[in-house]
Structures are given as C-alpha cells and as structure tokens.
C-alpha cells in the first residue's frame, strides 16, 4: 500500500481542508513539526478511513471533530496492487459519510459496498482488499509511535495471527478447505461406485463361452437371412423381366 494523498477537514487539530500529497518524485517523505501540530492526526486519518479506528479506539467518532465544528471528513488516496483507491469517511450534519472509489480512465468510479454485510462496510472492504485487519495493519504496515515493536512483543498467538494476515494465509486456508471438501466428496463417490461394482455378480468362463457361442449363432443366422433376402430380391427381379417379355410377345 502506497499513500498518495490525504485530505483532512475539521479532523482533530485540523480545521479547514488540509491536503498532504506524496508524489513519486521523492523516495522518502517525512512529517515533522512541534508537538501538538497534528502529525499523528495524519496517521489517525489513514486508520480511521480504512478501519474506523484511531488512537482512541473504534468508538465515539465525535471526539475526532475539531472543537466548534459539527462535521468532519477524511479522504485517503492510496495505491495497492497497481490500482488507485480513494476512501472517504466522516460525518456531516445529517448522517455518516462513507465512500470508496477507484481510479478509472476518465475519472473516479464508486465501488459498490452493498455486498458487504457488516455494520462497517468500508472496514470489511479494506480487510478483503488489503488482506489485513486493523491490528495486523498497525503492526506491519503502519507502525504507530511508541508501538513499532508490537509484532515482536506480541504473544505467540497474536504474532501468529499477525503473520497469517500479512502473508494472506486465510486465502490458502480457504483453498485448502475447498480442496479437502472436494476430496472427501470424490472419495464418497468412489466408495459408492466400488460398492455398486461389488454388487454385480461375477461372470464365469463358462458363461462367457456360452454368450460367445450365442453371439456366433446369431451372426450365422443373420448371414443366412441376408443371403436368403438377396436371393429373393434376385428372383423378384427375374420374374419382373419375364413378365415384361411376356407382354411384349
């Protein structure tokens, strides 16, 4: 994931719309300034836009609104897997604002979030698209201040969960599950076919010989019938010719 642009409006210490652009002409970007100017708020905007989480947790988004304002908005534009996305999250006077768009030729196209059924559809979309949840994202991709060693100090179970998300193990586990189900289904079909085969009575050599003799007898009779038919056809043709000559005389 490569951040490209972050816009903040009435978000934490930011008032009127502020824009941070991270262009490709620099290899490294640094946010610097005195304490309290809002450096951490830029990173809070990323996690809040994607996962609905910030330093204060995932609840009470009202505390993110700048004092004196009644609405706020964050917009995060980033590149991932050769696609550029823009995620907007905030609240206006009437309702929450949630939108995800993808850069297409000629402009932006909204991504349909209706297939996602959780209460936070953007978070579900981000987890599916990035392959990481909030915990794994902040432990591996965006290391928060004072939390850079989180993946090291985590419990073995937590570390395993982080690594599973980072390498996308869930996708392989789902594939393994489907392969296991298919193998079990095919094994059951094979066992059923084997049982059907076992129920078929065994054919003895004498029975095979009897069938072969019957087939040969039928073939001989067919040949004889064919010969008789050809002889009958010849006699009919001969009678027709004699009848024609008789009328001519």
Task: Write out key terms for the chains shown.
HAMP domain-containing protein, alpha+beta, single chain, Rossmann fold
Protein described:
The chain is 48% helix and 17% strand. The protein is of the alpha+beta class. It has a domain at 2-130: Rossmann fold (3-Layer(aba) Sandwich), CATH 3.40.50. It has a six-stranded antiparallel β-sheet with strand order 2-1-3-4-5-6, covered by helices on one side. Strand 5 (96-104) and strand 6 (107-110) form a beta hairpin. Helix 3 packs across helix 5. It starts with a strand and ends with a helix. This is HAMP domain-containing protein. One of its GO terms (cellular component) is membrane.
Strand order of the largest sheet: 2-1-3-4-5-6
| Annotated CATH topology of the domain at 2-130 | Rossmann fold
CATH architecture of the domain at 2-130: 3-Layer(aba) Sandwich
CATH homologous superfamily title of the domain at 2-130: P-loop containing nucleotide triphosphate hydrolases
Class per helix and strand makeup? alpha+beta
Q: What's the total count of β strands?
A: 6
Q: How many strands, what sense, and barrel or not for the largest sheet?
A: 6 strands, antiparallel
Overall shape: elongated
GO cellular component, one term: membrane
InterPro entries: HAMP_dom, P-loop_NTPase, Rad50/SbcC_AAA
Protein name: HAMP domain-containing protein
Domain HAMP: 177-227
Describe the secondary-structure layout.
Layout: E1 2-9, E2 18-21, H1 39-51, E3 72-80, E4 83-91, E5 96-104, E6 107-110, H2 121-130, H3 134-140, H4 150-153, H5 156-166, H6 169-199, H7 205-248
Antiparallel strand pairs: 1-2, 1-3, 3-4, 4-5, 5-6
């Amino acid at each position: 994931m490569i951040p490209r642009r972050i816009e903040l409006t009435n978000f934490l210490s930011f008032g009127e719309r502020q824009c941070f652009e991270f262009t490709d002409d620099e290899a490294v970007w640094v946010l610097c300034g005195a304490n309290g100017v809002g450096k951490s708020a830029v990173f809070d905007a990323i996690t809040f836009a994607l996962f609905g989480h910030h330093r204060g947790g995932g609840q009470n988004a009202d505390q993110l609104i700048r004092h004196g304002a009644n609405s706020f908005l964050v917009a995060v534009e980033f590149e991932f897997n050769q696609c550029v996305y823009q995620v907007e999250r905030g609240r206006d006077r009437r309702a929450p604002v949630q939108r995800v768009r993808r850069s297409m030729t000629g402009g932006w196209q909204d991504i349909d979030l209706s297939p996602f059924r959780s209460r936070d559809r953007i978070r579900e979309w981000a987890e599916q698209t990035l392959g990481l949840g909030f915990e794994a994202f902040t432990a591996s991709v965006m290391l928060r201040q004072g939390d850079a060693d989180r993946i090291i100090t985590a419990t073995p179970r937590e570390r395993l969960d982080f690594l599973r998300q980072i390498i996308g193990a869930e996708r392989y586990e789902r594939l393994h599950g489907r392969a296991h189900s298919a193998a079990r289904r095919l094994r059951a079909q094979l066992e059923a076919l084997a049982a059907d085969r076992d129920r078929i009575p065994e054919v003895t050599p004498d029975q095979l010989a009897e069938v072969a003799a019957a087939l040969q007898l039928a073939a001989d009779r067919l040949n004889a019938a064919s010969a008789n038919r050809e002889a009958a056809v010849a006699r009919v043709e001969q009678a027709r010719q004699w009848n024609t000559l008789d009328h001519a005389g």
